Amino acid sequence: MKYFSLVWAQLFRSRTRTLLTLLSVVAAFLLFGMLDSVRVAFTSGGSVEGANRLITASRLSITQSLPIRLDAQIRQVAGVRDVTYGMWFGGIYRDPKDFFPNFSVAPNYFDIYRELEVAPDQLKRWQDTRTGAIVGESLAKKFGWKVGDTIPLQATIFPRGGSNDWPLELVGTFRSKDRTVAGNEEQQLVMNWKYFDESNDYIKSQVSWYTITLDNPDHASRVAQAIDAISANSDHETKTQTESAFQQAFVKQFADIGMIVTSIMGAVFFTLLLLTGNTMAQAVRERIPELATLKTLGFQDRTVLALVMVEAILLVGLGGAIGMGLAALILPVLAPQTRGLLPPHVPTATWLVGIALIIVIGFVVGLLPALRAKRLKIVDALAGR
Amino acid sequence: MKNTLKKWLLNAAMLFVLAVGLAFWVWLPWWGVLAVTVLLALWLLLTRSGRLALAATRIGIASLPQRWGASSVIVVGIAGVVGVLVAMLAMGAGFQATLNSTGDDTTAIVLRGGSQAETNSVITRTQVPLLSTLPGVARDDNGRALLSPELSQVVNLVSKSDGTDVNAQFRGVGDMAWSVHDKVRIIEGRKFDSGKREMVVGQGAKTQFRDMDVGSTLNLGNQTWTVVGVFASGDAHDSELWTDVDTLATTYQRGALQSVTVRTDGKPGFEQFKAAVAGDPRLKLDVETTRVYYSKQGGGLTTLINILGKVIGTIMAIGAVFGALNTMYAAVATRAREIATMRAIGFRGLPVVTAVMLETMLLALLGGLLGCAVAWLLFNGYSVSTIGSNFSAVVFKFHVSPELLWSGLKWALGIGLVGGLFPALRAARLPITTALREV
Question: Is this complex's ipTM strictly greater than 0.85?
Answer without folding.
Answer: no
